[in-house]
Amino acid sequence: xxxxxxxxxxxxxxxxxxxxxxxxxxxxxxxxxxxxxKNPGQLQKLxxxxxxxxxxxxxxxxxRSKILITVDHEGGRVQRFKTEGFTHIPAMASLGCIxxxxxxxxxxxxxxTAYVMAIELLSCGVDFSYTPVLDLNYGVSSVIGDxxxxxxxxxxxxxxxxxxxxxxxAGMSCCGKHFPGHGFVEADSHIAIPxxxxxxxxxxxxxxxxxxxxxxxxLPSVMLAHVIYKKVDKHNACFSKVWIQDILRSKLGYDxxxxxxxxxxxxxxxxxxxxxxxxxxxDAGCDMVMVCNKPDLADELLANLRYNPNQxxxxxxxxxxxxxxxxxxxxxxxxxxxxxxxxxxxxxxxFS
Length: 352
What we know:
- The structure is a single chain.
- This protein is of the alpha/beta class.
- Helices cover 41% and strands 12% of the residues.
- The protein has helices spanning 16-22, 40-55, 60-64, 93-101, 103-123, 153-170, 200-205, 209-218, 241-251, 274-284, 295-304, 315-320, 338-351; strands at 5-7, 27-32, 68-71, 73-75, 78-79, 128-129, 176-179, 195-196, 221-224, 228-229, 257-262, 288-290.
- The strands form three sheets. The protein has an eight-stranded parallel β-sheet with strand order 6-3-2-1-12-11-9-7. A two-stranded antiparallel sheet has the order 4-5.
- Helix 4 runs antiparallel to helix 5 (103-123) and helix 5 (103-123) packs parallel to helix 6.
- It is globular, with a radius of gyration of 19 Å.
- Substrate binds at residues 72, 80, 147, 177-178.
- Residues 13-304 form the Glycoside hydrolase family 3 N-terminal domain.
- Belongs to the glycosyl hydrolase 3 family. NagZ subfamily.
- It comes from Taylorella asinigenitalis (strain MCE3).
């Protein structure tokens, strides 16, 4: 039984309140942040605690269900674990710059960079990272910027495919974000409600192209943008049946898992309280909704959300695609992994 809510925790280990929260039947995943990381050994203990807490649930259906342990670990500005051994991953724009000079070299480095990222996370018990960013770099967005591979959607697609291949080599799945595109607007949806005034045809012809070209076989999950595209729908993509059902599901034929972005962000605030936001996102067609940095709001949503598992019979199947494909060695044994050593050596020559 998979739940549709992703929650977070406060520190380096679980407290009693968090153990109870992780056993709630509506919780299907959790997201880690920099505040949850001290070193690889501590992270391994924490991910083990999370799984143990889930397995200890009184409800046997919950106890038997897995919980997806996730992180925003893209590289550059958005890399949650940077110290005590984790490789510093460069911003994705650096790969775009290499591509402009030598496309084949950039493709190889993208794959090796992703492999290093994924195997380090997996070795510490983290299942999944919300990457790659498919937004286009128009040079105006304060929140996207160098998180994007490139301005050209074809190059974004090529480098993303190579990056996803590297994740998959380590056994990790991926998430394309932020559909249908966050790079054109200047405002940061964490602290504002961005509005994009382009037409649907303009957005489909540029920002949506990577999603169309890559599809759900390459991208088993996507995350939606807290951006209002005024000429398409009055609601931002996370709350929009037009974007989710008419365009993403029907027009693009997408069958993977759809995440909302964090419902505590300012870009989601116009809908109402946290329960209204969660309900609106699920009713619009999101598979999973995320509540970050505000544990009281997470508890409020779990207490008040109206959700029947039968309303989304595809959730379990889609979520299963995001779990690691095979077991990797522990952090302590990474140094004996020849593929990891070779990938580290190749990327260090480029980025050190």
